[in-house]
Design brief:
By secondary structure, the protein is an alpha+beta fold. The chain is built from four helices and eight strands, in the order E-H-E-E-E-E-E-H-E-E-H-H. The longest helix has 12 residues.
Length: 163
């Protein structure tokens, strides 16, 4: 089993610390129902720092490729994860005061024992498409969804209509 690193989010950000590594997709339990294959790894880095207003921030970078299940044909769909986000750890009062119009970052609840892998998994889940599908024309269903040997379900009724 993969060791799950934990950080004090405010201290980590204020001291400009950095953590990076790779994690197998098989170690991300909340993703398993969405994946077609558990193969592959996710490269990640979390860099602490301060923004232009002197607030602690976490810059999260996620890169990898996973296989989702196409919702049209139920086949494997290669999906590239290339996600960069800036997070502002703060207390509940700070989250309530955040301006929704600020697009530079997302607020998260500061935690003295933040599970980094859980944070990464949250960000992946938020970034995945609701209904992943191949490009039009790439699925079996794009050509009508039937094989050459399959008959149309109303073919018998067509014969009755002619009699």
């Amino acid at each position: 089993m993969y060791a799950r690193p934990c950080i004090d989010s405010l201290d980590f950000a204020r001291n400009g610390r950095r953590i990076s590594g790779q994690i197998p997709f098989s170690e991300l339990p909340r993703l398993q129902d969405l994946l077609d294959s558990r193969q592959g790894v996710l490269d990640y880095s979390v860099q602490g720092g301060m923004d232009h207003l002197g607030r602690p921030v976490l810059d999260v970078s996620l890169h990898g490729s996973c296989q989702l299940r196409c919702q049209r044909c139920l086949g494997a769909l290669d999906y590239a994860i290339d996600h960069e986000i800036r997070l502002l750890p703060c207390d509940q009062a700070g989250l309530d005061e955040l301006d929704d119009d600020e697009e530079d970052f997302d607020g998260i609840l500061a935690d003295e024992n933040m599970d980094v892998i859980g944070l990464l998994e949250d960000e992946i889940l938020l970034g995945l498409p609701i209904s992943p599908m191949h490009e039009p024309g790439s699925c079996v269903t794009a050509e009508g969804g039937r094989g050459e040997n399959d008959r149309h379900p109303f073919a018998v009724l067509e014969k009755l209509k002619r009699n």
